[in-house]
Amino acid sequence: MADPSFRQSVEVRRLLVLLLLLITISLLIAIIVIVINTHSNRKHQPTCGQKEKGQYGHIDLSESDNPSVFRDLTSKEIKALMKYLHRQQSLNLVKAADMEVNTSYVYSCEMHLPSKSSVIDHLDKNAKKPPREAHVIIFRGDKQKPDIEEIIVGPLPKPTGHRPVSHKRKSIPFIYRPTTRPEHIAVIDMLNVKIDTLLGTMLEELYGGRLINCDSNCLIIRYITPVSSALSGERRRKTWYWVSQFAEYYILHPLDFAVLVDMDVTNNSIENVWFNGQLYDNLLDVLNYYSANKGSITKIKFPNVNTDSFSAAKQRGTPPISPPLRNPVQVSPDGKRYNVNDRHVNYMSWEFDFRMSTTKGPQIYDLKFNQERIAYEIGFQDIAVFYSGYKPMQAMANYLDSVGLLGSRAQGLVPGADCPKDATFVGTTLLVESDGPFSYENVFCLFEYNTGMPLRRHHSYSFNYGRFYEGMETTVLVLRTIIVIVNYDYIIDFIFYPNGAVQVKAVSTGYVSGTFYTKNENKYSFKLHENLAANIHHHMFSFKADVDIKGNENRFATVDIETEDLPNKFSKNPDSRLLQHKFSSNLKETEKEAAYKFDFETPKYLLLYKEEDKTRKSYKQSKSYRILNTGMSKQILPEGKGNEPSISWARYQVAVTKYKDSEPTSSSIYSILDAEDPVVHFQNFIDDNESVVDEDLVAWITMGVQHIPHTEDLPITTTPGMEVSFYLLPYNYFDEDPAISSLNAVRIEPTNKLKHTTSIKINRYGVAQNFECLPEEDKYDGEIEKNPSIILDA
Fold first, then answer.
1. Reduced to 3 states, what is the DSSP secondary structure of residue 350?
2. Helix (H/G/I), strand (E/B), else coil: 14
3. pLDDT tens digits, one per residue of 343-400
4. 481 and 457 Cβ atoms separated by less than 8 Å
5. How many domains does the chain divide into?
6. DSSP code for 711
7. Whose CA is closest to 536, among 385, 431, 400, 687?
8. Among 178, 329, 428, 468, which one has the highest count of C-beta atoms within 10 angstroms of its own C-beta?
9. Residue 712 lies in a domain
10. Which residues are marked as active site?
């Protein structure tokens, strides 16, 4: 018979097991309920900002039937423009399908900005809006003496006439023209046939591929070096064409083979060949050399495109965090705090218009803060990249990227990589070597950004010093575009701060320009990979800042910082001296005086101001804006030599000139080839030496960075250290920091400052701190799957 105490023990254990089972089931049910409720709550959580619109958050990007004086040409205007042009028998235009070098065709067109005085009268005095007009570039290869014509056509949208551009030559030399699509295709087709017919076997034996009939192992001719007559010594149009292996990315697979093409209007011919470290007169000489020396010439294996090559921009290596976690993101809990109407932006105290110039790139106009104009125009002008090297392709590689029509090189910005996912993406419509308008998607992005840096702050912790904290986050509005010139990507930002400051920033990324490594390149480059080097080069950026302070009768002065040596009357030592800084204002009276080259021995503040407008009458300080160039980089090539005259704007970190409608830009699309006789010679803006006292003034600002490529530039150059900026900063312009009016600040102080122990008062000025909403859904991947042409040539 079982022991009663044993039976009781078993029953107790059974009850305990049953109780634990019930508790476990209850917990599981509770967890399921929580998960379901959480999912349900998330599903029903609102999207941030998706509620009734208030003062901000209105986005309308549609083309207006009555476009602003600053707006790019609309699709309707471009169509009407092209109809007008093709009706003009004197222009003898052909359609895009029939374009050849010896025909007449429209190369590009864009909005022609009217005279500044007429625009200001319209904006400020309610005068009639100036007529909309187009600036058209026509290549006249059909003439007995071919040339380039630039004309103004209008009024739009129903043109009735045209005239030459008043500030340009009526006839621009034909050899200065950029390499056009039909010309480029014709030259490459010619080179492919000639080179492969004679040297195809050699190329295959040495480089593992051919130029034609090559299947997956193709060599290509894509990268070029235009050669100006200043370097060639002949008034001819010549270009070096490089040969590379076609693998991602081809520019990092260069070969020691290139050809110099003399690009005549009616005939293209090979003038020289660079091969295996030597210069040859023709392809046959190369073949003869190869036949006699093939055993001693280094062979280059064709890259295996099915593996992760060093040059491919694909993830590889050990991840710093695995499994991956998502990046932090910003949200706008109350929605966008800016408005966009067509191309006009309102944000906090700021408003401005923006556009994409076909030739010059991004521009902003009529920039106002608190309804006062700060600048009439701030615009990109050109990018110069001057290389050095042992081979002629690098030694003569002095690029001015406007030759590629900067505005047409910006498209396809990617949310979550190029810009925040919640940015507003804006496209543009251009015409380049075509019969009608072409829409470029995602050319600009506009977004508000929390920099993570206080705009201002002070923490007075101690009882004896007042006990308070006051601070404000820096949130800015950013207008961004990214211009891609073959291998380099240039990020251009216009940044608007709540204190009335503007920052303009340029950042370089993309692929370095590779060259076949030889020991002769050692003073120009490092060896980055097997058979690969990338040569030293200088990036230089030109910007225009037409700053109008309290109108357009301004002065330019420097506040010069100097040292002084005084008897130290505060010392017991009678021989003691007091050394300290002082400053003095130095008004610049002429354009030559206003051309500024930085000198560490004489530091300065650069100020634009109106003499009559003072901060407060009793202070006698003129309201000013300061130009601060933090991206200065001296151009060290001798002035007037080689291609340097094409970039005479780079001689100065800042140059201030009198405004002229005839001096709209510092550079031109012809500058890469016109060094002997520049179509736009910036130095002439200064040499006429006009007065800059109480005049409408323009600041021309140059920034740059010297780049000596290194192994970490593989596969793609990263942005840290490649950033250059200039600022327009209020300087005695406001009576105090205008951002002190913002409610997006915090002040913390005791309720009673006289007591050590007291409660705390936190003032957020009525701005809610907590929110429960989800960011807007990211639909980008789905959009490009439906329309690949947004991001890739499809």
1. strand
2. helix
3. 999 999 999 999 999 999 999 999 999 999 999 999 999 999 999 999 999 999 999 9
4. no
5. 1
6. G
7. 385
8. 428
9. yes
10. 401, 488
Q: 520-523 long-range contacts, Cβ below 8 Å, gap at least 24?
A: 520/277, 520/390, 521/389, 521/390, 521/391
For residue 228, give every residue at least 6 positions away whose Cβ sits within 8 Å of its Cβ, in sequence order, or none. Answer: 398, 643, 646, 672, 673, 674, 675, 676
Report the alpha-carbon angle 92-95-96, nearest 5.
130
User: Which pLDDT does position 688 carry in this prediction?
Assistant: 96
CATH number, domain of 365, equals 2.70.98.20
Q: Could you give the 3-state DSSP secondary structure of residue 392?
A: helix
54 vs 267, higher pLDDT: 267
Q: What percent of the chain is helix, strand and coil (3-state, nearest 5)?
A: 20, 40, 40
Side chain identity, residue 318: T
The pLDDT value recorded for residue 756 is: 81
Which is nearest to 293 in space by CA: 282, 277, 317?
277
472 burial level (CB within 10 Å; 0-12, 13-18, 19+): buried
Contact assessment for residue 399 and residue 385, using Cβ atoms and an 8 Å cutoff: yes
Whether the CA torsion 366, 704, 709, 250 is positive or negative: it is: positive
Q: Give the model's pLDDT for residue 42.
A: 47
Confidence of residue 614 (pLDDT cuts 50, 70, 90): confident
Residue 309 domain-assigned (yes or no)? no
d(CA 643, CA 396): 9
Q: 300: Cβ–Cβ under 8 A, 6 or more apart, which residues?
A: 206, 207, 208, 245, 255, 531
Q: Provide the pLDDT confidence category of residue 620 given band limits of 50, 70 and 90.
A: confident
- Tokens representing 317? 């290596």
d(CA 357, CA 430): 9
Those residues whose C-beta lies under 8 Å from the C-beta of residue 430, and which sit 6 or more positions away, are 72, 108, 110, 356, 358, 407, 408, 437, 438, 440
Give residues with Cβ within 8 angstroms of 752, minimum separation 6. Answer: 758
Among 107, 159, 150, residue whose Cα is nearest residue 665: 150
CA distance 345 to 691: 35
Residue 346 resides in a domain: yes
The predicted pLDDT at position 410 comes to: 97
Range of the domain at 720: 338-428+438-741
Q: Which residue has the tokens 């270009």?
A: 239
161-164 and 147-156: which strand pairing? Answer: antiparallel
Instruction: Provide the pLDDT for residue 26.
Output: 62
Taking only Cα atoms into account, the Rg of the chain, rounded to an integer number of angstroms, comes to: 32
Residue with tokens 């010439």: 297
Q: Where are the alpha helices (DSSP H) in 113-160?
A: 116-125
Written as six digits, the tokens of 348 are 């906090």
What does residue 259 show for φ and ψ, rounded to 5 degrees?
Answer: -130, 145
Residue 499, classed as helix, strand or coil, is coil
Given a contact cutoff of 8 angstroms between Cβ atoms, the answer to whether 676 and 229 are in contact is yes
Phi and psi based region of residue 308 (left: phi greater than 0; alpha: psi -120 to 50; beta: remaining) = beta
